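Thread: nicotinamide-adenine-dinucleotide complex, take 2
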Amino acid sequence: MVQRVTILGSTGSIGVQTLDVLALHPELYQPYALVAFTRWQALAEQCVRFNPRYAVLRDESAAEALRNHLSAIGSNVEVLGGDAALDQVAADDQTDVVVAAIVGAAGVLPTLAAVNAGKRILLANKEALVVTGQLFIDAVAKSGAQLIPLDSEHNAIFQCLPQHAGAQSLNSSAAGVRKILLTASGGPFRTLDADALRKVTPAQAVRHPNWDMGPKISVDSATLMNKGLELIEASWLFAMPSKQIEVVVHPQSVVHSMVEYEDGSVLAQMGTPDMRTPIACALSWPNRISSGAPKLDFTAMTDLQFELPDLQRFPCLRLAREALEAGGTATAVLNAANEIAVQAFLEERIGFMDIADCVAAALENIHAPDCKTVDEVLEVDAETRRFVAARVNKTD
Ligand code: NAD
Ligand code: MG
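Output below.
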């Protein structure tokens, strides 16, 4: 039967690549609802090409512009606008699969709407899990939603774990897992010294050597905060404590992550650095479908390097581990502070190394209690944003 797919963040890097994979398999998948923020022209093109049931824009005036445009060209795609519309299509009875690919904590509520409706969720929006942690995992358990990691590292780990043990259901000690080895490319500034790092520009930061991604995750890759968020993501997804997750820098991005077992076996998942592979894997799991990604050419692979990350030059990774180990809502504080600081860096209002300083200051100053509800967590998120915004404005 054809699976109906809702894509939260269809106009972004992950959204567009997901649509590319769906287009290869029209007999298996039908885009059902496409969701974006403000860019109605990009969404209009996707509507013409894929003819989904719904097109949704969070921004109401952009939704109005799209509605006018689509009716003028005779399209029958229904346009919805506003926050509630995102939750509505994520939880819609007709939706089978939800691809969570909004960037940042903005994806928390729609992703949780899909979780609470018991959908099959392909999780790219790592921030949603980092912010809500235990509440997210509890909601998955309660609704019976199926959570499949789309992030390349987590998808790799998912593939290397025992076949019966999916995400969030792994009993790691019973499965004989000793460690998860999370690989990191090291980003565009892997070899720069501390002085040079202070002077890098947003344009340099968003030029990643191996992956073509949205601006926020590209900056996160450059600071290694992306690996920090992924460390937290892995801890929740695979029920693994911080000390059993090690980060290994691997500049070629061929090995996407590894699982080490008690007997000394290490299983790795490899492939070209192309998100269409984990997208296709997550869509069709436990089956396999073509993705359009180029094949790995072993004869062209001359050297695979592995090294430890430098936490002096890349303090964001250290801060993320500390937040994970601190528990409570420290990881929500870390994420919110990082989102505001990265935006300020992209707008050239603060320097590259100020990102880590903002995050450290937020972790020191914001009270991060255990929260019982998502609303309480979002309060902590909002307080952190105000704190970092005030700090950034002072240094303007
Ligand atoms: P992107 O910036 O290219 O796209 C973001 C998408 O989210 C867009 O469709 C945008 O319209 C939508 N969006 C942004 N803010 C929104 C809001 N407030 N409300 C509703 N929609 C909003 O980002 P991306 O690179 O595709 O990354 C998306 C997510 O996937 C991130 O969480 C990122 O960490 C994760 N991820 C990305 C990659 C990658 O290769 N790009 C790899 C692994 C994980
Ligand atoms: Mg990743």
